[in-house]
């Protein structure tokens, strides 16, 4: 059994910011969905996304020709004000996270990994505490639940889905990072790497988890050996 690494006071404060941000983001999403659902009952179907709601809903409320009841207009205005307040809370916490990130050499180093931004980098630094807690990158990936579960039957080892052990928030962030990196490479027309082969042979979700596993291993290597990220880096054993 591996225990959660001990945090210092600064790391604890950063994790508190992340927990608060996570709650505000969830509340913002729920509020946006409620507004979208209520408007759909009157025939206004809006696409997903906070930006779309912020752009379209004020016009719907102010349009006197759509015959929306006054009580309903006031309700939507109240819910929009709540959505705006939640969005402001997320923005303010993001600013605090970015400020902490800029003051952390390690966090800035981890941001160089494709797909990793200040939110994920600071969460990694604050959650892991010290890479010395793990023998290697695979152990860190396993701690985060990014390795396949194994099942033995009749002397045969079968690989199942990922174990999903450990910190679910950090695991989710890394998978989002992986998806972002895959999308960015596709947009640039760079679809020749191994992760795109996995996506074609299996599916995009499996490819994202596989890349998240690699990102976790890369995080450990940069942190433990005090290296800078190099996209062309090849381990000595693999190059031999």
Could you explain how this protein is built, in words?
Residues 110-184 form the Transposase IS116/IS110/IS902 C-terminal domain. One of its GO terms (molecular function) is DNA binding. It is a single chain. With 240 residues, the chain is mainly α. The chain has ten helices and two strands, in the order H-H-H-H-H-H-E-E-H-H-H-H. It has a two-stranded antiparallel sheet. It has helices spanning 9-40, 50-62, 70-102, 105-110, 118-128, 137-143, 168-187, 194-201, 204-224, 236-239; strands at residues 148-153, 156-162. It has two domains: 1-103; 105-233, no CATH class.
In short:
With 240 residues, the protein is mainly alpha-helical.
Order of helices and strands: HHHHHHEEHHHH
Number of domains: 2
Largest sheet: 2 strands, antiparallel
Fraction in beta strands: 5-15%
User: Unreliable segments (pLDDT under 50, ≥5 consecutive)?
Assistant: 150-160
Q: CA-to-CA gap between the ends? A: 35 Å
| Rg for CA atoms | 22 Å
Q: Average the pLDDT over all residues and give the rounded result.
A: 87
- How are the strands of the biggest sheet laid out side by side? 1-2
Label the overall shape.
globular
Determine the fraction of residues in helical runs and give it as a percent range. 55-70%
Query: Class by helix and strand content?
Result: mainly alpha
Extended strand count: 2
Q: Number of helical segments? A: 10
Protein name: Transposase
Organism: Cupriavidus alkaliphilus
GO molecular function, one term: transposase activity
InterPro entries: Transpos_IS110, Transposase_20
